[in-house]
Design a protein that fits this description.
- Helices cover about 65% and strands about 0% of the residues.
- The protein contains three helices and no strands.
- It has helices at about 5-15, 25-40, 45-60.
- Helix 1 (about 5-15) runs antiparallel to helix 2 and helix 1 packs across helix 3 (about 45-60).
């Protein structure tokens, strides 16, 4: 099941708050997803959702 737009928006915000942990590509990717959701009200594709989830899991992990 895909998250709701507000859940994706929260994941994007979480990633943006940790931008120092993101590669240049990830920063660009996350920003483009934010624009897609906020400006256009569009959801994410399955692949976009999977990649965002991978990035979010990594940057929000409490592991050292």
């Amino acid at each position: 099941m895909k998250p709701h737009l507000s859940e994706w928006a929260q994941m994007i915000e979480d990633c943006e708050q940790r931008e120092g942990q993101l590669s240049d590509w990830e920063r660009s990717f996350v920003a483009s997803l934010g624009e897609r959701i906020v400006k256009h009200g569009m959801g994410l594709t399955t692949l976009q959702n999977e990649k965002l989830t991978q990035i979010w899991d990594r940057v929000t992990s409490r592991r050292p």
